[in-house]
User: What shape does this take?
Amino acid sequence: MAVKRVKALAVLFLFISLQIVVFAITLHYYLTKTFLALRVIDQAPGYTNSSVVQPNRFLGHINSKYPDVRYTSPVAENSNLAFDNVTQTQGKVSLTLDKVTQSTGKVPSSTDCCIKADKKKLFLDVEFPPFVNYGQPDGPGEGGNATTWPANSLTKEDIVLKDKDYTTHFFDEWTSRKIAVHRSLPDDRRPECRIKYSNLPAASVIVVFHNEAWTTLLRSIHSVLDRTPIYLLQEIVLLDDFSDMEHLQEPLEAYIQHLDKVKLFRATKRLGLIRARNTAFDHSKGRIVVFLDSHIECFPGWLEPLIAPIHNDSTAVTFPSIELINGRTFGTGMNTKLERTVGGLMVHSLSFNWLYERKHNISQTLLYYPSPTMPGGLYAVSREWFSKLGKYDPEMDFWGGENIEMSFKTWMCGGSLLLSVCSHVGHIFRNINPNIGGIRLTYKNSIRVAEVWMDQYKHFFYEKLGYNIPDYGDVTSRVLLRKSLNCSDFGWYLQHVFPELKKSMDVFGHYYGEIRSVSENVCLTRQTNTIGIDSCRLGAVTQQWQYGSDKRITSGEFILGVRSEIKQEVEYWHIGIFHDRVFDKTVFVYWIYENQRLVNKKTGLCLQVNTRSRSVELKNCSNSSEDQQWKLTTRKQNQDAMKSRGVEIDWSV
Assistant: This one.
């Protein structure tokens, strides 16, 4: 009998011990999450007891007690978020709890192209890089104001760090660290943009990044969370494209653990933006997907007008009014002047530009404007339509050309591309992409776009390349996709969507090719920031010029012009090349070609070769001077010359 009692007590003791162990592990887990939430605040310099950061100290308790709810932070003072005011009377905090729509999904294995970060992983000793969580109302960058530093306020160490950060990211991350990741932005929306929307579906927001700066990435994430109605945000899918910077490893995983709608996936090899976005799309769940860059800030009321047209028409693709965030001062705001500028195209490079010509022809009352192209960094699309269009071309490398492909096939396959006037998203524009490393980007992506979508008009692009076309891979599957969708031809796109481009691409009456001097065996040659002459080389890109009915001489995105300069009441004329998109009233770009002379329309002077200085100059016109005579190559002559080299050119395809 005694033996049975001992056995029973032993079993009871073992059971109680196991319960204690389970309780200890559970308590350790939730205390760690609470500790982590506190560290997100405590490691962020610049906050005070008066700032709205204290409620975040309850995150661990909230997440442990209510695993299916999230805390709605009241930081979007100008948005239409629904939340209760935070009160801190005698330590009592009023919180708004709302349901989170989350999909568990299958976690990709390590053999896949990416793995999902474990949000239950415990982090006990993670140091976050410096950042400011919440700022004072008049703090650096608040209200979108520019942040500048008087020269005498910076130490030598500060200057060194600023320069180092700029070299790394090509924006001033040192200044960004002084600006709160929850900073406020102005709400200057027009009255007609403040309408209420109903029955909109939740959207997945996709952000792909590679070695992004810490504070700009956090500010991107929080601007989405802070200014998006909870019921409209399905999730934020972060995809780390094989970053190797330390702050994007454990610190990032630890930081997002208390952000319930944020999911982090990591690529196991470098994918590039295009393939990474395809991968992130495959791991998203929303009926509508919004692609954003990793250095953006969403303005109040940004999402609803972006997804409303897609809710009504699943084949619509929308992009916001993109506001410039200054890369040095981080100043930004709603620029209403840019609201009516839609996307265009530079056909010589198949790259995006703004179609300023159409700006003045748009109604002031419309909230959406048809746009021939889009920038591509920020846009929304339905899951159904993006999938039907074949997503991004998976054979494209890294980045470039994917936005043009998306623009072409959206229109040509029965959809529409719309600029949303009422949606505003700020973006840090950089002249150089620091994340391609030593990768040599070619025209491969653009050539794939041209081969699949541009029909015979692809030759306008190939001319610029001098028909030196690199290997662009197999496009058979993309051509079959276009046929299966019964898409229109590129001529339809030019006629119905982009007539301005059709006008500039008119074959007849145009000269295209070299401009050769009659007196010397030299050709007009585009040089770095200037114009000169050089020995003629068939197909040389820098010697390919177009002269058409608009009376302008262009080479790619550059234009031949004359600049006026007045010195001591004497006007001087300087010939050079200028960017085609720069509208400068002191530059005169129209030329009359007659009797083999190129006469500048404004000055009445003739273009003359100077063989001694290997340059060109403007002189009074002379009928007898061969130095002022030029032979312009017609497009047919240029094509015949290319065919003599064995290049296949067929404009009737």
